[in-house]
Amino acid sequence: MMMLQHGSTQLLCLTASSGVPLFTRGASKQLPFSVIGSLNGVHMFGGGHGVVLSSCETEGGGKVVWRVFQDSMMLIVVSGGGQDGAGDSKEDEVRLQRLLENVWSCMVLVLGQDELTNVRNVERLKRDLRSCFSLIDQLLEDRQEGILGNLTHCADSLLPPNPTLLQEAVDGFAQASDSEFGCLIVHGRIAAATEKWWRLAPPEVVLLSALIRSLSASGSASCDYPVFLPQGSPTVAHRLLRFQLLPGADVCVLCGPTPSLHSAESGMVGRFWTPLVETLRDCLAVGEHSLPRSVSLRPDVLALLLINRETRRSVSCVRTSTNRPLGDPPLPSKARCWEILKLFYIFSTTRYFNQEETLCVSPEERAQRANTDDFVLGFSHQPLQCYLVTEECKSYGLQTPQHQLFLLAPLSVPTFALRTVATQTLSDIVGATGF
Amino acid sequence: MAHVSPSSGSIIVADWHRCKDSKEYFSKILHKKRRKNFGLLESPVMPPHVAVDTVHYKIFLSGKSGVGKTALAARLAGLNIPNMHYETTGIETTVVYWPVKLRENGRVLFFRLQLWDCGENALRRFDHLLPACKEQVDAVLFLFSFTDRTSFDDLSNQIAKWTGAPVVKLVVGTKFDLFMHCDVAERDVRNFQETWSVPVLRVGGEVSDGLGDVASLLNCLAEHLWASGLCISQTPFTAGDRDCTLILT
Ligand SMILES: Nc1nc2c(ncn2[C@@H]2O[C@H](COP(=O)(O)OP(=O)(O)OP(=O)(O)O)[C@@H](O)[C@H]2O)c(=O)[nH]1
Ligand SMILES: [Mg+2]
């Protein structure tokens, strides 16, 4: 059965206890009510027999993933599968699992856990859930190139040319706002943050980045948004204050009842940031590359994703114009490189490398949902490197205790040279930036 | 398109953006024929020999969910207007710079209008948001939608809540372009305007040239703010000089 068009994804939300539909998002053509009912029914049937149905595949290459959160809400995602030949069903499943986790976190972020778990009035809940649609649709579309945090749960970062000045300003600004949590986001990526910001749970850091990105994209000058932190403060809202310093550069703090948006803006923004206008412009000039010019990458690197496993941060870039010698096969487009990078990340982390589990799931649940192949569990050791050659490019993964590097190279690079390219790239970046 | 109440144009030059002598000022708020988006650290910069004061105002957008507050803020600032209704889940402010020429003495001023937009449902869920919007506010725009009768009928209630407050009050009717679904008759609007003696402006439709669509609304707002008397003139903090001066008109 093919339930949805290829490439489209639909999200369903129902109450877990009684299966009352709360909302659906995504896909232009909605699934008929009877299908929604059956999807819920089959999960309940399993539940009645002590079986947790977590995913299934349709003959047409579609995929369904179920997940119940806090015993109160059921999220189901249905995917038409096969986005332009992207990945097999395992890659799809990981992507969809992540999507459900992220959607739930969004709901908690906006509404708080109490409202979602103690449902007194379903109609009212339905109405309130509408306030989450902006973030949920953004997750479903997943259109923003170069942002991988939703998948990796590592914070997309940008390494500024002048980190010390920015760090001091963020620290000072946060302190003056009676807050320990502050960060500077440039082109949607964290350029500097207070120590406490980095101590938020990694999925929260990623979620806040996503919220700030969407606020920043609207072009508004400042915001005062109530937010719940899914892990740190699921029942008490904090205030997220955001100030657009320059278009594309936003400073944010998480704070309590004070200061007011007005007083923070008129009293502090200019004081801390006016002296740094040029530094901020330099930082904006780094652009989507997330790496300063002091890092010179080898010409045979097409794209890369570098994760610091300890700090749960990542930098990534796709290079636009690598000169291609005549006669070489065409290089994948920029958008395609981002897609391949994501797929290769999932490929490597499900088959060979550890995917650091950062989510609060119970151990039993984790075992049920284990994405890691039995194949890997059979290993007596941890693979350190892996590679994959496809018709489009060559991919290489490298793992050290501190880092994971995922790198794409053109087909013209000999396979035996990939390891050298990767190790050298890793040391180039770490050497120049201390990342 | 915005249509202004007839009384306007007595204090500031109406349609000044069409005059030649306004070019050098309006060019500072444009970039590649579109409106320029200013970060908080930026402001329109005139050459040193052209001294222009900037006057700062805080404007609150009031109106029920879906009436078009976020869309209006985007329209006035020349930002992309959302075509879907996504609830605003907190306060968002948008800064609009607008050059104005005073009729009386030909003096030019930059109005810095900071529009405070807070989602109606967020206002209801969180008590601290409304006081934040009201703090030191200079004007309130009461929005209703031409396609939603109840939003129009509720105006008097909304305005009554602000009786006695020393703020400029204007009413803006949104979705004027959706005349097929119009639910508020012209006659009702005229009656309302007479009863409350509050100007009613109309907006809606595609944004075409960036300035003409918003000029009448922004000029009307600027005029009422200026006429209201006291304002705080503040050179923007990018200039490095943050002394405040009071100007009495
Ligand atoms: N045709 C037309 N549509 C409009 C106009 N103004 C707003 N809309 C649409 O109306 C919907 C709601 O507008 P918003 O500006 O998001 O509503 P809001 O008042 O901010 O609502 P809350 O944030 O929930 O309080 C959006 O889909 C807009 O595109 C208009 O003048 N004409
Ligand atoms: Mg809104």
TrEMBL record, chain A:
Origin superkingdom = Eukaryota
* Every FUZ/MON1/HPS1 third Longin domain range: 301-429
Q: Which residues form the FUZ/MON1/HPS1 second Longin domain?
A: 180-265
Which is a Gene Ontology cellular component entry for this protein?
cytoskeleton
| One example of a Gene Ontology biological process annotation | vesicle-mediated transport
- In Pfam terms, one family for this protein is Fuz_longin_3
Subcellular location as annotated: Cytoplasm, Cytoskeleton
* Matching InterPro entries: FUZ/MON1/HPS1_longin_1, FUZ/MON1/HPS1_longin_2, FUZ/MON1/HPS1_longin_3, Fuzzy
List keywords of the entry alphabetically: Cytoplasm, Cytoskeleton
**Domain FUZ/MON1/HPS1 first Longin as annotated: residue spans:** 10-139
Keyword Hydrolase assigned to the entry: answer is: no
Question: Is the keyword Cytoplasm in the record?
Answer: yes
Family membership noted in the UniProt record? Belongs to the fuzzy family.
- Name-wise, this protein is Fuzzy planar cell polarity protein
Species this chain originates from: Champsocephalus esox (pike icefish)
TrEMBL record, chain B:
Q: Where in the cell is it found?
A: Cytoplasm, Cytoskeleton, Cilium basal body
The UniProt similarity line reads:
Belongs to the small GTPase superfamily. Rab family.
Q: Which organism is it from?
A: Champsocephalus gunnari (Mackerel icefish)
Q: Which GO terms describe its biological process?
A: cell projection organization; exocytosis; protein transport
Say if the entry is tagged with keyword Cytoplasm. Answer: yes
Cross-referenced Gene3D superfamilies, in alphabetical order? P-loop containing nucleotide triphosphate hydrolases
Q: What is this protein called?
A: Ciliogenesis and planar polarity effector 2
Q: Which GO terms describe its molecular function?
A: GTP binding; GTPase activity
Q: Name one Pfam family in it.
A: Ras
Keywords of this entry: Cell projection, Cilium, Cilium biogenesis/degradation, Cytoplasm, Cytoskeleton, Exocytosis, GTP-binding, Nucleotide-binding, Protein transport, Transport
Primary residence: cytoplasm
